[in-house]
Known about the structure:
mainly alpha, 9 helices, 75% helix
Amino acid sequence: xxxxxxxxxxxxxxxxxxxxxxxxxxxxxxxxLLACVTALGGGTARDILLGHYPLYWVHxxxxxxxxxxxxxLTIAMARVVDRLRWPFLLLDALGLVVFTIVGCNVAIxxxxxxxxxxxxxxxxxxxxxxxxxxxxxxVPLVFSSExxxxxxxxxGVIYYFGLQANLQQDLVMLVAIxxxxxxxxxxxxxKWEMPKFVYDKDLR
Amino acid sequence: xxxxxxxxxxxxxxxxxxxxxxxxxxxxxxxxLLACVTALGGGTARDILLGHYPLYWVHxxxxxxxxxxxxxLTIAMARVVDRLRWPFLLLDALGLVVFTIVGCNVAIxxxxxxxxxxxxxxxxxxxxxxxxxxxxxxVPLVFSSExxxxxxxxxGVIYYFGLQANLQQDLVMLVAIxxxxxxxxxxxxxKWEMPKFVYDKDLR
Amino acid sequence: xxxxxxxxxxxxxxxxxxxxxxxxxxxxxxxxLLACVTALGGGTARDILLGHYPLYWVHxxxxxxxxxxxxxLTIAMARVVDRLRWPFLLLDALGLVVFTIVGCNVAIxxxxxxxxxxxxxxxxxxxxxxxxxxxxxxVPLVFSSExxxxxxxxxGVIYYFGLQANLQQDLVMLVAIxxxxxxxxxxxxxKWEMPKFVYDKDLR
Lengths: 204, 204, 204
């Protein structure tokens, strides 16, 4: 079940990346590349940081075709997509939570420290979006938007300590996904944000 | 012969990077650093993604001196370089194609899947330019310019399937380089571009 | 003693990163993330380039808490920090020099070529700041500011050749730190800069 949700999440991330590419007037190749970086960048960054080789997409290269297919489909459907704002935000929220769980699992299997498990989940969840924003020449949204990274951390903490408490894995996973997903949706609806740090003076 | 072309390609990439640095008014150190990132970044990214250690320039550190030398020479010759637009574009096209072949070879030697061989070639060919543009705070040119990445993919496909067909390696390599190089030059002359995906509405 | 200075340097880098985040109006999470990337990014880049696993912070995850703590403390103290321009610049200079020595040590222990030892020190010293500037959507300062990278190279050269000359390690380290630190401070006071390469014509 996690695997099915994982592929849905990758597809959703690829489609949001394709829309971002369209806003920058990229060509079809740029759309595919940005989709790959966004959908697979988080897992890639986690594996490189943890020295966990081979990378997921090097081992299963067909996922590259899935991502490029989803990106090209988005081009074809761009007019429809416009009316699908909420379905997209929900799929994106699901993607964030599912990527986090997948990332935690990799770090747990490697026997990493609890802090690193949480960080691995967070890197998997958010780095794809950061790379997308850097390549589009924006300040990454995750630094200032609604509870995005916080959702990932909360999901990871629930999942890790649920497993430590010897509860059943599937149950823990479902609870972590449900709580994280709900938190993100509520934050989107009520525009919950972390407090901002505004500092105007230039040090130099 | 591939090795001679490889060094010519590295030198050419270093020089184009130096000109980009000059447009950003970087200091001499910045020029050298940007040249290293541009000329060696593609191969470095490929090796990190494939877990192929040690990196080329860590194993052969003198290539760093070659790159910095080419960059500093470009500073000295900036007035002449200005008249050399076409030689530079041709050397850059050669670099793209040669880097692609080198990247494919590394992945083939590691026994990777055909898709990964093509991706390894493409990463080697284009990532250096992407990093150069990100560090110069531009949206990477490769996302919207003339058939740049497509040339890399075509070259990689010809090379890989030529080798699979048990043709002689040198012959396959020459054909792949010639076709890729010609495609890039024709695309430059006639301003061939991939279709663009233009999407104006903001999802958020 | 190097270790104590290393922690001071990490804390100082985290605090300067927090101020940069404040200028971009990031939220508290963004402040912590940018602090981690800035303070630990140089060492992480070095270890990934050299294939030196596990990464420092994966092995000692509590350093993440130190960095985030320093970043959050900076938020609380932002008004005071404003008057501390010079202490900060001095700590930042110390950080640059100490990071360089730590990076050289890693490469020396791996038995790398002298050029790679110097590069490893430089990567450790400057990459954190480059990542900070890229994530804040600036052209990295290090490409055009006062002798920043040069200080790192000079420190690395003194340290490496001092050790090669069989002098006592602690003495060599102190001399390298003192010379590098003094050079940076003098460059700040007298606004020493590397010559700039200014090139106005667009190649394309």
